């Protein structure tokens, strides 16, 4: 591509301010201009070199004046460095008139979302009109590879320049900004998907795409693939041809006429396995499955790409059935709120795609913390947590500074059709400070920021009856397929599966209110098919709304599904569990609230082999800086390692290396989620294994690693641990069906739910069935 991309502030009337409160004290036309070379499109995650030349405007830049080149918070490009000319990301800056400059890189050196800052200060001399600053990013003159670009695509990646020409510390943006495009690379893997639950005779589509090494849908796919149906799928061709240009391929008009389970295997022409879809269960049911990522942001707040592109990606490239945009409220201007409502109205199409209006109430944790807000229709009042990044204060009177005030405002204004989620991103929701079950129906237990089971546990401790959702909270412009990329992210964005009668806003909102959904950690195997049904020995009263809030209606029955609230006067319950997945199931944990009742595995102790799972998990604490570094290794004595396979190494900067036949080393992090490695040994029981990480150092006999977990606990404020256990050499179990009799405790809520773990590290949680006497 040779297109010279540029952008003007006039094109973005909803954009948040760049610096101080005095926006345009100087005519932007007098600030100068900048050009970047080369221009065009550059592959995500690749190394490149750029020369950016800033030409000073009318005022020049005075002694002690500055220029900032700022990048979005969401970008995971490598940081510039100034000390090692032969190293990656080497950067130089030179003034045409010889002025002495001071350089500083500060990842929080400017107002969000443009907070990643290269700060260039004139410390001796000055610039006059026409003088230039030449900034070279990724200098390769001395053997360096260049600068590594961000790992996700962006049509308009800006090198945004802010100037303080008069040394007043009032930085103003250039009227036209230099930019490039970040484009996908060659496909490294292929992903295929079907719906997960449909009725006999309903038409559906097979979706297929290639993804580059960073998870971007690739437009460079050129291959013919063979399609194999496991089950009777009418209309499925024998092959499909992928051609360059498209980033996703759809085969519509498929039908399964009779109840059963089907899937599709994709192979290359030589028979090599390329991809396998999730299972599709076909049953004659009232409720079927719709997959969604209801939480993420675009460039108008702190994300990447426009809001229009955001919804288009979810629908067309991540194959979501539904999506919501949850921008930080303190960055959503009235103009952008109007634009966002226009976009959701444009994308919403009953039967094919649901675009849900809403926003993220982004209050400080001390005031309640982040909440997702969803509306049934456009045009509703946005009640912000503040106007922190909005200059126009016209609508500041509708602000709600605390989560309690937000809920009170909904109730006072008769907005009982609003649905809220509590979630954890940077700020975390503290439901001990505020919660209102009339509106807040669920908690988000997983996103690209990590895993937050503690939020569900908080609800149990407080007696709240909430459902479970998982979303991406993604900032990389990839809702529904939000890979972590590089940097400090270690989790892929989650997905929520809604049990609903149809694909429409009213049906999904009804599902949200009744908590009839479950969440997964997402990824290629994230569309796990789950069903949990509770059957009771006696007639029970079954509620959709929480009777503890008063006025809830009920009906009588002997069965309940996830999300139901059940008053059971006597007798016990039987939990029926069905799990179908695209990869092997490692375990299913059955919980009654905080209590783990049983772990059910699809294999017996006699099936164990020479495969040892190393597993690390946890978070430092609830807030932003929750990451736990697990860099370390394992040494084997008296045995040898035949194979080492990484588990949940989703961040490509993190690696597992088999350095010898007796030692592995790794770089890894977690943010509440988990990772690990499988070591297949030459002898299943000989020798000892020594583990060394920053948190856990231990040695154990191989013979002592068995069916049950051996846990080395280093928990602090939150769970944080390393564990070892043994697996079969081969586990082919991708389906499980079982029932369990469960006693109902009289003096407490009994939130009955399951957590599923697949061998590749994918997890899923069902919303609980709440049973009480």
TrEMBL record:
It comes from the Bacteria. This is DUF3604 domain-containing protein. It comes from Roseibium aggregatum.
